[in-house]
Amino acid sequence: MTGFEAVLLYALWITMLVLVYAGPRIPLAAFTERRMDSWERTKPVTDAAFFLRAKGAHLNCMENFPLFAAVVCVAAFMGKSAVVDAVAAYVLYLRIAQGVTHMIGDSSALVLVRASFFAAQVGLMLYMLWGLLH
Predict the structure, then answer these.
(1) Which of 3, 8, 29, 60 is the S-S candidate for 36 at Cβ 3.0 to 4.6 Å?
(2) How far apart are the C-alpha atoms of 102 and 59, rounded to whole Å?
(3) Residue ranges per structural domain of the chain
(4) What architecture does CATH give domain 3-133?
């Protein structure tokens, strides 16, 4: 898998997470008494815990996606795509594993697993940055 393919699949994963937590809102608003604005940030949280965790997984992706995409694009501009192509798929796999773990639950053990997936992603990002700078 190339770095660009990993970026596209990462974007697909982000989109899927949006559909997981925001998708059910449309039928709720269309077919129940629930108003479309009942999910605004200033309103009390009424979503089930799973949907809140899915939203958290989505927001975590949004925090890290720009950095990953930038590294992949800069590698291509520098003519060093091979540096990111070697590990980009693993960044994606770890990101998906982190998101799935996030949605499963929020026990201390799961948070540790999730943090381990994140730490591995950071390590791979540093590896790619090092490779691009040298």
Answers:
(1) 29
(2) 11
(3) 3-133
(4) Up-down Bundle (1.20)
